[in-house]
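User: I'm putting together a teaching handout on how multi-component assemblies are represented. Below are the sequence lines for each component of a complex, exactly as they appear in our records. Could you produce the 3D structure of the whole assembly as structure tokens, so the students can see both representations side by side? Please keep the chain order the same as the input.
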Amino acid sequence: MSTQQELHIKQTVRGFLLSSINVPGLKDEENLFEMGLVNSLFAVQLMTFIEKTFSLEVETEDLDIDNFKSLNATTQFVMRKTGNQSL
Amino acid sequence: MQQLTEQQEARYKEFKEFVASNVAPYAEQWDREQMVPDLALSLMAQAGYFGATVPLDLGGQGWDVVTFGLLNDAFGSESSALTGFVTVQAMVSTILLKWSTSEQKRKWLPPIAKGDTIAAFALTEPEAGSDIQSVSTELRPEGQHFVLNGHKKWISCSTKASMFLVFGKLRNQAVVCIVPREARGVSVKPIVDLMGFRGAGLAEVLLHNVEVDPDNIVGKPGFGLSHIAPVGLQFGRISTACSALGLLRGCLEESISYAAERRIGNRTIGDIGMVRSLIARMGTSHEAASLLCYHACKAHDDNLPTAFERTLMAKYFTSQAAVSAASDAVQIRGASGCHGSSRVSRYYRDAKIMEIIEGTTQIHESILGKILVDQVQRLK
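Assistant: Of course. Below is the structure of the complete assembly, with chains in the same order as your input.
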């Protein structure tokens, strides 16, 4: 269940990332910020996207670059916020 | 704007009636005196305009962003200075709503929404304008509190503000804090003789060894410029775009009226092809800008990530269209449009400011260009 859910979240986030940044071969662990792929506007866009898509709210305590630094990190963050645990 | 609901239409009508009664007769005087009187702000506060986007349970109106855009459009047609106040209250409120603690929300949002507290957004510095990463205002820990030092400039609403949302650095991490006006070490130096926005209360804000309580830190250090400021700046762009739309509408209405009435010999100037061309261009720009502004506001109401680029586009296009329309409106008016007391000369001066505040036209081009190029994968 969680694995399926995780896969769905990852595919959804990947779709959004690839529609916004020009890195066709984006790897799951690639650090978006360290690679200079995104700017602060995108950081807020990503936040808005996951809030809207997964019906969650990014709160002050969630402000941690480790939650959004990569596709995997964002997926795990959404999993936690939506009450799913990775297997 | 387009595709409005009945409620949005009704509110837009109410906003325009308020502006016709309480703003239009005095806007020229406020511009000349470089000051908006407290009474005008008090009337706006009573009407709930400073709490437009604040939820009902925190004392605001809880209006959607489309309605907020209409409010700015209505005021923009008469007083860019007053839209400055609406803009900044929304920028600060939006940040507090998103990132402050429940205690901070309860303490600050109701008085801002009611107009008892006028807030200012203290980000820009003499050496940090469009490049906000360069802010040098510094917060350092000292005992149980922090000490703030810095110099902010071009800060709207400051002459009337009783609280400042200040952006700075703490151990080189971007941080945001609330600073009450009465705090020791805060001084405000009004900026006079601006070309436009002359009643918007712009000032320099000097912060000298200001003691900041840890309870007044907003959000988390390290995210002040990446996640906190953009939320407010986004509302600033929406507000500026819609205010420029109102100014553009004002130019159009003024030009149409004048063209229909002003006679040269046995015909009106509206019969002259070259004047018609200017008005046709103005009317078409207004229609296009109106659609861009509506779609940007609606994208926000729908919480869409595209709201950011749509807002950039709306601000980018509308501010330039307003500058062009104001120039043409003065041209149509001729000599009478060149006098400082004319509505169109005020439009001309205010419009140029719209192209600079909340990110210059060139900054918008740079950001938008990158966003669009980075979307290349969508083409495949």
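A couple of points students might notice: Chain A touches chain B through 24 residues (CB under 8 Å). Chain A has a mean pLDDT of 86.
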